[in-house]
Amino acid sequence: MLTTPKVSVVVPAYNVSGYIQETLISLELQTFPDFEVLVVDDGSSDDTPAIVKKFEERDSRFQLLQKSNGGLSSARNYGIRHARGEYIALLDGDDVYHKDKLATHVAQLDRDADVGVVYSASQTIRDDGRPTLISLSGKPVHSNLMLALLCKNFVGHGSNGVFRRCLVDEVGEFDEDLRSWEDVDFWLRIAATQKWGFYREKRILCYYRVRPSGLSFNLVQMRISGEQVIQSAYRRSPELIKPILPTAYAYMYRYLARLCLQGGDIETARDFIHQALICDKSIFYRDVRSLVTLLSVYLAPLAKIAVKHSLGES
After folding, report:
1. Burial group, residue 295, by CB count within 10 angstroms (0-12, 13-18, 19+)
2. CA distance readout (Å), 186 to 88, 117, 192, 271
3. What is the pLDDT of residue 55?
4. Which of 6, 79, 187, 264 is at 20 to 30 A from 292, Cα to Cα?
5. Rg (CA), the chain
6. What b/e sequence results for 146-157 when a residue is b if at least 16 CB atoms lie within 10 Å of its CB, and e otherwise?
7. Which of 258, 59, 97, 76 is nearest to 168 (CA)?
8. How far apart are CA 277 and CA 34, in angstroms?
């Protein structure tokens, strides 16, 4: 007889053969054992399914689901529809959990019936798995959850949240028309109910891999999706959102500028910073990370000149 697991871990996977083994091993090492893993192969053309099948053969908690390619939201929704657990945990196929991730979050959800979503601080890792110096505290910048999410995605990334399965029935699935920002949109819909709390674990329990080829660097799509999510939130709660729309857009442009910096596109980064300044320049003296981004954009050309000069180039 099949027992119902406490947690269903949904792992969307598309051409992640170089990473999926490390991801799934981090689940095998969890100190909380009562879970199922639903790996949704979203039409991979590499060895991703074959690697997952090895885990499926040796551990009955792992299950490979396969579908034609439909994008990240489609894969997550497909996994959630097959989930049997009371709680849903999300883990992208190239990210990694700390061994205490599930145990810590399950305990909090069991303890507090008013909390709908739990998450933790996280740390970014390089393409090769080595940790970077960048960590995400997950601390909201505003006491109102919707306002906080519009300014910064305090959950951090799509592999961090663990939530009650019933929330999907209440607010709907991930929006498959969004090619990015889909997790922010989902959290915003939960926050808009004004019924469920979000709980932050201060310890780093998740490791988020930054890959240059990742979706986060598709700047055109990022901007389109970001604008769609902001406008959707405004339509749901116009009186609450209208006063902070300029600030929400300023933070979005600042975030896009930071991505440009990471990709080495200083000119486009400067354009985004300019738009952020027009929307709400106060974010640059109220928020340290925003100020660092602004200074990095405007000092980058000087840094390039200094490097060239030190190398004796004209």
Report:
1. exposed
2. 13, 11, 10, 29
3. 98
4. 187
5. 20
6. bbbbbbbbbbbb
7. 76
8. 49
Which residues face 123 on adjacent strands?
135, 207
Tokens coding 164: 């009650």
Q: Which of 67, 55, 61, 58 is nearest to 12 (CA)?
A: 67
Nearest to 58 by CA among 92, 21, 94, 31: 21
Q: Are 33 and 48 in contact (CB under 8 A)?
A: no
**3-class SS of residue 161:** coil
The DSSP code for 154 is T
User: What backbone phi and psi angles, to 5 degrees, belong to 113?
Assistant: -70, -15
pTM of the prediction?
0.90
Residues 13, 67: Cα–Cα separation, whole Å: 11
Residues 38 and 91 sit within 8 Å (Cβ to Cβ)? no
Q: How far is CA 231 from CA 125, 223, 234, 242, 281, in A?
A: 32, 12, 5, 10, 21
